[in-house]
Amino acid sequence: MFYIIVAVKLILGLLALVLVINLTGKGNLAPASASDQVQNYVLGGIVGGVIYNTDISIPVFMLILAIWFAAVLSLRWLKKHNNLVKRWVDGQPVMLISRGKIDVDAARKAGISANDLSFKLRMQGIYAVKDVKQAILEQDGQLIVTSFGEENPKYPLITDGSIQPATLEMIDKDENWLLAELKTQGITNVGTVFLAEYDNGKITVTSSLPNQGLHI
């Protein structure tokens, strides 16, 4: 009987993994943010700590998984609809280098030493900071580097209705230029833009909603 209960708990744990992958639309459990890592750790602790514990019955185990599911989906909903919660939970990209100059304070706050930064640059074939137009540390620890001479930025101009100032700086443009370009495409509300990308001097816009709300 003990092995049957363990097998049932293991199957439930596997189903929980499949469900969370499908419901979050990630495709896998590879963490892309701090909250993803925490969710994986918690699920691993739940399954690993409960599966051999005979004091926790299958119904209780299912209840624990249901609570975990509710917490994960609630946090996902909050991050999607509240930028403040998203920044607080996942953090945000940090610009470490701008136009060949290192932001030492930003690097120290991110826990990046000079040796770590040099190593990350060398991994991308860059051996001098002066050759870097912009280097941004992502939430997952990956360093995204744009060198002088690269025409297209590696980040979008607008994501989920929010203008990205760092990308504008990378292409030597300002917000007024971006708003004017959007108007030429009939877009008067930045909040309706799902994604805007800059490619070879042109802006490609994907809208999510009809123009509404505060106009520019």
Automatic annotation (TrEMBL):
Record field: transmembrane: 58-78
Major place of residence: membrane
Residue ranges occupied by any YetF-like N-terminal transmembrane domain in the UniProt entry: 3-78
Membrane topology: Multi-pass membrane protein
Subcellular localization, as worded in the UniProt entry: Cell membrane
Keywords: Cell membrane, Membrane, Transmembrane, Transmembrane helix
YetF C-terminal domain: residues covered: 80-199
Pfam families xref list: DUF421 (PF04239), YetF_N (PF20730)
Domain of life: Bacteria
GO cellular component: plasma membrane
Assigned protein family: Belongs to the UPF0702 family.
Name of the protein in question: DUF421 domain-containing protein
Lineage, opening ranks: Bacteria, Pseudomonadati, Pseudomonadota, Betaproteobacteria, Burkholderiales
